Structures are given as structure tokens and as C-alpha cells.
Amino acid sequence: MGCGNSALNSKKSEKVLKAALVIQNWYRGYRARLRARLQYAVAIFESIEYADEQSQMQLSDFFSFMLENYTQIHKDDPELSNQLLENAKDRQEYLGLIEVPDSYDGPRLHFPFNFTDIALLIDAFKHQKTLHAYYVLEVLFETKKLLKQRPNFTHLKTSASKGLTICGDLHGKLDDLLLIFYKNGLPSENNPYLFNGDFVDRGRYSMEVLMILLVSFLVYPKDIHLNRGNHEDFMMNMRYGFTKEILNKYKIHGKKILQTLEELYTWIPIGSIIDNEILVIHGGISESTDLNLLHRIERHKMKSVLLPPLAGSSIEPEKKKAGAIILSGGVPSKDSSSDQLSKHEWEQIIDILWSDPRGTKGCFPNTGRGGGCYFGPDISTSILNKYHLKKIIRSHECKPEGYEICHDGKVITVFSASNYYEEGSNRGAYIRLAYGMDLEFFQHQVTTSTCYQPLHQRVNVMESSAIRILKERIIARKTDLTHAFQVRDHSKSGKLSVTQWAFSMESILGLNLPWRTLSMHLVKVDKDGYADYMTSFQDIRIEKPVKEAESAIIETLYRYRTDLQIIFNIIDSDRSGQISMEEFRKMWKLFSSHYNVQIHDSQIDELANTMDLNKDGSIDFNEFLKAFYVVHKYEKDNISNTKHSRYQ
């Protein structure tokens, strides 16, 4: 009897175990599918981010073309060239003209700043206060004056008792900076920090992040260190949001802040060297990186990545014997016969601000970003050995865990902005190091209400947002894609195999995405596996500012809208938002000539005249660009799905 019960119980236990294993395997598969969807969404965000940066870098070719040709075309109007190349003048006199009213309830700073001012700023920003323009300018002026005394590379020493915290990209993510300070302590003489570039852009609180970092630097100039990133660039700010943030927050004094900030960027050191062993730079290196030359470069001549040296300024710098790095830490001489870097010097800075490591040996162009290079483990070993260094710490790339170690431990990426693309997309991290000790990595992630949602809901939000922005890229190239589809559709059936459809998408958009996997979100596929390719454009359209305008014109202008906005913001020197019709026409001729954009001048005039509502001969270009917005059929649903995302 007992044996029978035992056998029965054994069978039940076996069934329970099998059921548990089935459930466990199903759940693992379910989680794996969710993680795969999450990775695909991140891949979309990253590919589009890099494509935007590539477009931004390609603008440098246009500006070179423009500066070389504008004077020839308009010899009586050199104003634009002056705007692009002039050195910003010290605007200290502005402070005497700015009054802080009694009604101002934000933080009031008192120069010379001390620790209390850091705490005051942080508390005010936590409560959504805005720092008055007077204090912003005072901070910028004083920071610029101090930075001008610094060498290109900051040489730092650590000890067993006094370490150093290294933070990567923050991108205006105030919550991440405050979380780091909460976990790691506020900056002080006993708690030094190195911030490795990209303080601003993309996040909504770039000004607040920048002010905390700069005030901390002014309070502890020997213990708070700043490296320049590729977004400490006034023309990058025009595309990625910081310029717009400043003009929205400081409607009266925004132009003065931008002008001062433009020059301050040029004086931020371009790297740091810790204990003569660790090179800290924002991007990376190339096979031709020359640290001796980079120590000597007059960094303040690097106005913007989009303003390469003009023809005629390509004199190569004096060659020095390779070996140990210049360790004097001296400030480069300001005496120079030119106000520009040589082409070789400019490329050296581009490489350290824009490059990315890869697992493949060698050094080749960074086609993803359009600037700098991809460098392999052999390049890292070569450069480190050449200058008697052991490691490179860099930032510049969002990593799922906030950091990544590659090239046999010789290259380390640290990225401090969590939830960079969307809520839950990545952790942030920072590094602590002390002399003779291993590097310590600390992760963090800002949490809001959405972080408590089930994983599938968070994945749905990210996936929906990623597909949304991808569809906007698709509709902007509708004419080109349609032509590519039809070329492969030999039977004129309106259908292609998913493989042919995917090949067409990649050949036109160049985003290096898993198009076959994404096809279920982007195109209707029949039971035989053929894609109805015109459904790639359903549920989305570009709003036309002129009803009679051809769709190809609308697509072209939509595609280049951000580039055009940057160009016209430069023309609009007083930041009024208004430019003359003649300025519009002149710049369009240069733009269309350089990019080979086939739109007739009369069509551009028609579009511009439509925006000139009061017929005063000038247009509000921001409104002109806003006319080219994308309309989604299910826009309300998408907005509802993403309403919890704090950073857009």
C-alpha cells in the first residue's frame, strides 16, 4: 500500500517538475523575445542618432564650400563670412546693463563662489527654478577666464587616500547628475571629479547641468576637471537642442549667453592624463593621433567641427620626435599668424572628439557618425605603447550597462546618462579610481513611474517610439524608396520578397538595421512572404505648407530641414527668428548647388512667400520649417504610450 502511494506521489512530482520546466522554458523564451525587441528598438535609436551626426558632419563640407564661394558670389557682402569666423569678444560689460529684479525668486549667487553656491544651485534646480541671465553670464565669463589659463591636457595625480570620479556623457540629464552626487558625494577638495564632455544637448536641463558643473569648477578649480566633448560646439547645439533651450529660457539675453558660450567651448581642455598612465578623452584615437602635437595645438581656434580650415591654411605643424608625452602642462602660445588651425591639427582634434573603438583590427573612417574613425585593438596598443600609457578612458557612446571594457581592458567607455533613448533603455555609470587600485564601476538609473511597469509594457513603449521615428525617416525618402522598389518589381505586381524589400530599405536609408525582422512593423506581408511595398508609407504623411507643391519637393525640404535651420540660424545673427527673402534665396542657391538638390528657385520662392504672411519681405524660418511636420494616423495613441517619457 505504501509502495503504491510512493509511486503515485513520484509520478505527481514528476509531472509537477515537467510542468515547472515547461513554464520556466516558456518564460525564458518570453523574456528572450522581449530582450530581443528591446535590442532592436535601441538599434533603431542608435542608427538614427549616428545618421543625424553623419549629416551634421557632412555640413562641414558645405560650410567650407560656402566660405570659399560666398565672397566670390557676393563680393559686396562679406557679412556672413565674418559671422562664421569672427572671434567672440569679451562681453563683461553686459553685466552692468542687466538688472536682477526684486521679484526674482531663483538662486542668487555671490562671487567669488563657494560651496554654498553649489548647494544653492542644486536645491533651486530641484525645485524647477531658473538661474537669472546675470548669474549665467557671470559664471560663463569667469569660467572662460580660468579655462584660458589651462593647458590642452589636464595632468592629474591620484593617491591611495584621494581618488577621482570620472563621469561620461550627461546630455542635459539633471536627474542623473543629482543621482551621482547623491550616491558619490558632492564635489569638494576631498572628492574630485572629471567630467568627460557632452554636458549639454538632447536633455531638457542642459543649462542647469552646465551651471552646476561650471560653478563647481570655479569653487574647486584644482579638483573639478572638464574635458571637451563633441557637443561642446555651438553649431552642434543648433541641431541637438541646447541653442533652443537657451533661447526659450532667456528670451532677452539668450543671444549674449550664446555668444559667450561659443568662445568658452573653445577653451575647454581637450583631454586629461591621470598618473601618467591613463588617457581620458571624449571620443578616441586614430592611427595618426599625435599627443605631442595635441599638447601644442592652440585649441581655442577650434570653433566648431562644422568649420574646417579654409583652403590655404594647410601648413603642417613642425614634426617632433615621437616618444614620451610633453608633461610640462604648459599653455599653448597665443601668438600665431593665423586665426585657424591647420587641416592636420583640425583632423587631430576631430579624431579625439568623434572616434569609436571596434573589435576589428586597423583604423578606418567612422562611417556611422561621419567624423573621426573606428580604431581597433592594435591601434590602441600602438598608441598606448608609443606614449608609455596603459589605458584609455572615453565616453561618447551609450552602453546598455553604462560602461564597457574592450581591447583587452585597454579601452574603457563610460556613459553617465541613463534612459538615454527612452525610459529603461540603458543604465548610466561612473568610475572611481585611486592610485595603485583597480578601477571601480558604479551603475545608476533614474527611475520614474514607468520603471515600475512590467517589462512588456516598457518594451512596447520603447518599440513604439522607435518605430515612430523610423517611419518618419521612411516617409522623408518616399520618392527614392518607391523608385527603388519599382526597379526590383519586374512584374509590376506591387510586391517584392521581404529580402528585396529589406535590401531596398537599406540601400536608400543606410541605417544598418535588421530590416527583415522589422518588416512586421513597417510593411504588410502576405501569406506567401511577399511585401506590399507601398504599404511602407501608410498611416503617415508630411504636412504640405503649399497644397500645390510636389511631394518630392516636400520630401527634400523635410529631409534637409535641420541642416537648413542651422544655416539660417547663422544668417539670423540677431536671433530674431526673421531673415530676409533675399538672404533665403542666396543661401538656398548655395545649398542646392553644393548638395545637388534639384528644386527650382521659383518653387522655393513660392514656399517662402507663403510664410511671409504680412508681406514685409522677411520670413519666420522656424515657422517655415515647422510647416514640414510628419502626421501619424495613430498619433494620439503614440503620444499616450510615450507620455511618461521625461526626456524627448
TrEMBL record:
Its cofactor is Mn(2+); Mg(2+). Its EC number is 3.1.3.16. It comes from the Eukaryota. GO terms for molecular function: calcium ion binding; iron ion binding; manganese ion binding; protein serine/threonine phosphatase activity. CDD domains: EFh, IQCD. Keywords: Calcium, Hydrolase, Magnesium, Manganese, Metal-binding, Protein phosphatase, Repeat. One of its GO terms (biological process) is detection of stimulus involved in sensory perception. It holds the Pfam family Metallophos. Residues 559-594, 599-634 form the EF-hand domain. It catalyses: O-phospho-L-threonyl-[protein] + H2O = L-threonyl-[protein] + phosphate; O-phospho-L-seryl-[protein] + H2O = L-seryl-[protein] + phosphate. Belongs to the PPP phosphatase family. This is Serine/threonine-protein phosphatase with EF-hands.
